[in-house]
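Reposting from the mailing list since nobody answered there.

I have sequence plus structure tokens for a pair of proteins and want to know whether others read the tokens the same way I do. The first protein:
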Amino acid sequence: MEIRPCATADLEAVVRVWHDAKREAYGFLAQEQGRTLAEDRSFFAAHVAPRCALWVAAEGPAVQGFLALCDPEGRALPAGSYVDRLYVAPGAWRRGVGSALLRLAMALSPAGIALHTHQRNAAARAFYARHGLRAVRFGVSAPPESEPDIEYHWRPSASTARAE
């Protein structure tokens, strides 16, 4: 598996991974179940790609997952600290793709990262806990979702920070 910056040629595959993973993981979000690939493509082009630095995990030409990393104000920065999106193709779940992308986010943001996930997304919650992220705030996502969510943080340990 190779992790590399997302190229323009990867964007269609990235949107497909995002679309398929949301449909599989978010059975509790009716609006995600009803979104078309074209709607997701349009949203991603308007709201994600322009403001986030993007990386893909690929096996040969096949994109298996992606990471969208931004700074807290939403500007695209290679060393952003907010994981805006981390998605893995359903066929690649539990094969280390998400872990590799999360390790990249941590390496690019050595002071720490933050992210949100839905409270009902048990698989994501377990994944983040396994990787040392702590739940720091419970809230509700913005409309139209208005779904209970959790803010997670990862901060390096003192020994990790001294080693770098």
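The second protein, same order (residues first, tokens after):
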Amino acid sequence: MRRSLGLAASLLGGLVLVCGIASMPFPSDAADVCPANAKNANLNLGLKDINGKPATLSDYKGKVVLLDFWATWCPPCKKEIPGFIELYNSYKSRGLVVVGVSMDEEISDVKKFAKQIGMNYPILIGYGRDDELEKAFGTLPLPTAFVISRDGKICAKHDGLTPKEQFEREISSLF
């Protein structure tokens, strides 16, 4: 009888513990990534793609955007790009677009590098637009990447080499 009461008490205690944990409020990943006071990205900033065609970030409104400022002469930038290609391939069907903004002077260098490494996402040219870009996004040490929500909010900014897994956590919480 004592053994039965002990077992019943243990089971009841376990049930209370499980119910208590289940009722605890857990923070939403999306709320952690994109705070309520997140700033709006300047979606109307006009740039050109590597073929000279005009483009703006508003072209990607309604998508989750990973906006990467990079250059071919920047070793950490080049190290991040294969991860961005993987993320784009994995999540483009869910509404992700990776947009690379090259800060290179020579577009031919950008085209050559993009082909060599297999960049399959939009590449815009930011060279010569430093003042406008800084006004829109702040200081841009290379690499700098932003995670932008479907509604155009800047949810995260990363200066310097950032692990792909960090971007993946932030991006996947916005779908």
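Reply #1 (J.P.):
I read it the same way you do. The chain has one domain: 28-172.
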